[in-house]
Amino acid sequence: xxxxxxxDVEALSVAYGANRVLHGVSLSVPKGEMIALLGSSGCxxxxxxxxxxxxxxxxxxxxxxxxxxxxxxxPEKRDTGMVFQSYALWPHMTxxxxxxxxLKLRGKSKSDIAAAVTRLTGMLGLAGLEQxxxxxxxxxxxxxxxxxxxxAINPSLLLLDEPLSNLDARIRLKVRxxxxxxxxxxxxxxxxVTHDREEAMVMADRIVxxxxxxxxxxxxxxxxxxxxxxxxxxxxxxxxxxxxxxxRRGDGGIAVAAGPANGPAMLADRPGLAMGVxxxxxxxxAATLVDLGHETRxxxxxxxxxxxxxxxxxTYRYAVAVGDDQYLIDDIVRRSPGDxxxxxxxxxxxxxxxxxxxx
Amino acid sequence: MTENRLTNLLLVAPxxxxxxxxxxxxxxxxxxxxxxxKDGRGTLEGFLNVYQLYSTDILFTVVIxxxxxxxxxxxxxxxxxxxxxxxxxVLVGFLKWLYRWPLFIPFVVAGQCMRAFLxxxxxxxxxxxxxxxxxxxxAQSLLDWRGVIIAFVxxxxxFAALLVAGAMAALDxxxxxxxxxxxxxxPRILVEIIVPQIRQTLAVTLVLSFVTMLSVLSVPMMVGxxxxxxxxxxxxxxxxxxxxxxxxxALGLVSMVLAGSVAWIYLRHSLREGQxx
Lengths: 359, 277
Fold this sequence. Notes:
- The complex is a heterodimer.
- Chain A is of the alpha+beta class.
- In chain A, 24% of the residues lie in helices and 35% in strands.
- Chain A has eight helices and 20 strands.
- Chain A has a six-stranded mixed sheet with strand order 6-7-8-3-9-10, with helices on both faces.
- In chain A, α2 (95-105) packs across α3 and α2 packs parallel to α4 (139-152).
- Chain B has one domain: MetI-like fold, CATH 1.10.3720.
- Chain B has helices at residues 2-33, 45-85, 89-98, 107-118, 123-130, 145-169, 173-182, 186-197, 199-214, 218-222, 231-242, 245-274.
- In chain B, α4 crosses α6.
- The two termini of chain B are 35 Å apart.
- The A-B interface holds A 53, 55, 74-77, 80-82, 84-86, 88-92, 101-102, 105-106, 135, 149, 153 and B 172, 174-175, 177-185, 188, 192-193, 196-197, 199, 277.
C-alpha cells in the first residue's frame, strides 16, 4: 500500500476578483518534510499558504491533507496549525492561556492542559513565564508562544507565514535553527513562507521557488542553489550579475564568441540549451578579480575597471564597470577604485539560459 | 512670557466661555435650585418629595435602563460579530447598510413608531394574527415597561453597534484567524477572542448608552403607561403641573448622580488610555 502524501496540492488556482494570483499550482509534501515557499512580494506564496489553511477560497484545484480532500472545508476543520507573521497572540490572555487554548477547545481537562503547557514552555524556553501576559514578552518569546500554541494541538500540517520576519537579525539566526530542530524532533510536516533566501536554505528540506503565481522550481536547497532551472531562479538565488553573450556548440563544448569586453572562451556543454544569444548569470562570490593579462582555460575573462569598493566583512565587495554594464564582485584581495582589472568567471559559476525579454 | 500667557488665555477663552456659559452655569443653577424654594430660601423639601413620592420611579428607571443597556450590549455585540465573522458578503453588506438607520431617527419618532407597532391592535399583533401565530383575543398591548425597553434598545443599538463594530473591525484580523485555525467555532471566537479585546470600547459604549437613555423623556411618556414611570417624566410632571422646580431639580440631581456613577467608569477608562502601558 502506498501511503498518501501528507499534503497534496493539485492544479490549484486562486483569484481575487478578476485578478488571478495562483495559476494551477501543484505540490506534494511527504510526512515529516519541511518545505519553504520562496519568492518575492506578490508571487502568490502567502496566497498558497492561506489556501492550504482554508483562509482563502480556491477557484479550482484540490487540496488533500493526509489523503482527505479539504478543499471546501473551513479552516477550523482542516487540522492545520498556522504560525502567523504577526504571531496573532491573544493579548487578553497569558502565555499559558494562549498555548492551552486549542486544548481547551478540544475539551481537554485542566490538568491535561496544564501538563501540556508545562511541557511546551519547557521545550520552548518559556518556563517561568506561563502566567505572564503575552503583551509583556519580547519578540522572540512571542514567536515561541505562537509556535507553542500550534504545537499544543499537534496538527497534521504546520504552516508558518514568514515566522521570523518580525525578529531582529541576531535573534532570527537563533530561532530559525530552533524551529528547524523542533520540526525535526517532532517529525512535523511543515510549509513555510519566506522571502528570505538564506532562511529557506537553512530551514527547509525542499524549496519551492515561486514567481507570478506559478512554481518556478522545486528542489533541495543545493539543487535550487547550484542548478537553477530558469533565469528567474538563478537571479532569485543570488546570481544577480548578468552577461549577454553569443555562443555556439563546437569542439565538445560551448564556444563563446569574443565580445566588447571578453575574449573567446570554451565552456562545458549545457545539454538542451539553444545556441545563439545566451544570457549568463553569476554570483558576486563566484567570480574573482585578477590582473589584466591573466590567462585561463576555465571560464571567461572580462576586462573592466573598479568604480566602487566596500568591506561588508570577510571579503571586499567591488563594483566593476565592464563596458556599459556594472557587476558586483566579491574578492579577498584589497584593491582601489580606478584599478583596471579582469573579472574571472569560472565555467561552473555561470548559469546559462536563453535570453530573457527583460534581461 | 506674560504675553505668551495672555495669548494662551485668549486662545482658550472662547471654548472656556462656552463651557462655563452653556454647561457649568445652568448645571450649577439647577443644582442650587434643588436646595432652594421659589422665594429663595434653603430647603430639603425637594429631596423629601423625591424620597417619598419617587423612590419607586427611581428604582424603575434604573432597572429599565439597566435591562435596556444589557440588551443593547448583547445586540451590538451580535451585530458587530456578524459583520466581522459573517461568511455571506451579501448578508453582511445588507446588515451593514440596515443597522445604522435608527441612528438618524429621533427618540420621539422612535416612540411614535413603537406606539404604532406595539399597541394591542398594532402592526406586530396584526402580523402575528395574520400569520396564525396568535388568536386575536390573545393580542396584548406592549405599551408599558416592555415597550419602553424595546424602544430604547431599537434606537440605541444602532449607536452602540456602530462603535462596537468599528472596534471589532479595527482588531488584528489574524487574532481571529488564529482562533479559527485552532478549531474555534464562530460563537466562541466572538465570546472568547473578540469581545475581551474590545471590552473597553464596549464598556464606554454602554456607559454612553446608559446616560443617553436616562435623559430621554419622549419614549417613556409616549410608550409607557401609568406608574411607575421614569424620572424624566416625573420631572416634566413637577414642572408642568405644579411649577415645582425644587423637586424637579432634586430629581435632576438624582439623575446626575446615576449618570455620574457610570460616567466615573468612563473617565477612569479615559485616564487609563492616556497613560503609557
